[in-house]
Amino acid sequence: MLRVNQCKVNIHYTEEDVRRKVAGMLRVKPDEIRKMEIRKESLDARKKPELYYSLVVDVHLDNEKKILARCRQKDITVAETKNYRFPVTAEKRPEKSPVIVGAGPAGLVCAYYLAKHGFAPIVLERGKCVEERMEDVERFWETGILDPGSNVQFGEGGAGTFSDGKLNTLVKDKFGRCREVLQLFAAMGAPDDIVYKQKPHVGTDLLVDMVRNLRNAIIEAGGRVQFQSQVTDFETKDGNISAVIINGKERIETDHVVLAIGHSARDTFEMLLKNRMEMQPKAFAVGYRVQHKQAEIDLAQYGSQSPETLERLGAASYKLTAQTSTGRGVYSFCMCPGGYVVNASSEPEKLAVNGMSYRSRDSRVANSAIIISVTPEDFRDKSPLGGVEFQRELEHRAYTLAQGKIPVQTLEDYKAGKATEDVQGLTLCMKGRFAGANLRGLLPAQMEDAFLEAMEAFGKSICRFDASGTVLAGIESRTSSPVKIVRDETGEASVKGIYPCGEGAGYAGGITSAAMDGLLIAEKVAVSMTK
Question: Which domains does the chain possess?
Answer without folding.
Answer: 2-78 (3.30.70.2700), 99-279+484-529 (3.50.50.60), 284-476 (no CATH)
